[in-house]
């Protein structure tokens, strides 16, 4: 009986973290209230502290979950194509119109990057870990993996992809939005374009 209660509490905790991971990407850290997250998870506000010691602890788990989902999506894309096409496939998917429109389930870094400097250390630590994973994933799929400059090129690629997506989401001109993403791809994959 105790094991079932533990599983139930873990499942509830997981629902809260899922709701929070979507909410922070949709509304930002500052626009994400505990009451709204609990409501989205189908729970009452009063149960929050049975799962988290603080709002920051929940946000750190949400940042980790959202970042982990981003990395997992890129890993699935890379695994779905021949290895020599993985890097291009990841970049094209990241800078796609579909990803542009999926702010609530898309890349947490693109949705929240400008807010990170003002977050609690545990939130920043979770986001940093996931950003490093994304850089490592890009580096591992680069044609020059193992060479000294591969990591630096991966840093550049991730920064370019995230920056292009942030700007493409920021503007109200669809043509400019498309142009930003297309220009980034052209620079990242010059032989592909």
List the helices and strands and how they pair.
Blueprint: H1 2-27, H2 34-40, H3 55-79, H4 86-94, H5 97-101, H6 108-112, H7 121-140, H8 150-170, H9 174-188
Helix pairs in contact: 1-3, 3-4, 3-7, 7-8, 8-9
Walkthrough of the structure:
The protein is mainly alpha-helical and 193 residues long. The chain has a domain at 54-188: Tetracycline Repressor, domain 2, CATH 1.10.357.10. The chain contains nine helices and no strands. It has helices at 2-27, 34-40, 55-79, 86-94, 97-101, 108-112, 121-140, 150-170, 174-188. The chain is globular, with a radius of gyration of 18 Å. The relative contact order is 0.12.
Q: State the oligomer.
A: single chain
What is the N-to-C order of secondary-structure elements (H for helix, E for strand)?
HHHHHHHHH
What is the helix content?
55-70%
Kindly state the number of beta strands. Answer: 0
**Average pLDDT, all residues:** 92
Please give the radius of gyration in angstroms: 18 Å
Q: Could you give a quick summary of the protein structure above?
A:
69% of the residues lie in helices and 0% in strands.
Task: Give descriptors for this structure.
193 residues, 9 helices, mainly alpha, Tetracycline Repressor, domain 2
């Amino acid at each position: 009986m105790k094991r079932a209660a533990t599983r139930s509490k873990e499942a509830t905790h997981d629902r809260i973290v899922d709701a929070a991971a979507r909410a922070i990407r949709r509304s930002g850290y500052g626009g994400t209230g505990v009451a709204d997250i609990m409501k989205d998870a189908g729970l009452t506000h009063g149960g929050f502290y049975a799962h988290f010691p603080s709002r920051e602890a929940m946000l750190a788990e949400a940042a980790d979950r959202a970042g982990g989902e981003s990395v997992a999506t890129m890993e699935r894309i890379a695994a779905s194509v021949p290895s020599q096409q993985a890097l291009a496939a990841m970049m094209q998917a990241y800078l796609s119109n579909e990803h542009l429109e999926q702010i609530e389930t898309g890349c947490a870094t693109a949705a929240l990057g400008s807010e990170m400097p003002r977050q609690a250390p545990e939130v920043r630590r979770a986001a940093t870990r996931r950003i490093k994973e994304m850089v490592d994933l890009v580096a591992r799929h680069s044609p020059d993996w193992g060479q000294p400059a591969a990591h630096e090129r991966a840093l550049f690629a991730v920064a370019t992809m995230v920056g292009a997506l942030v700007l493409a989401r920021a503007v109200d001109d669809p043509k400019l939005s498309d142009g930003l993403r297309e220009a980034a791809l052209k620079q990242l994959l010059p032989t592909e374009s």
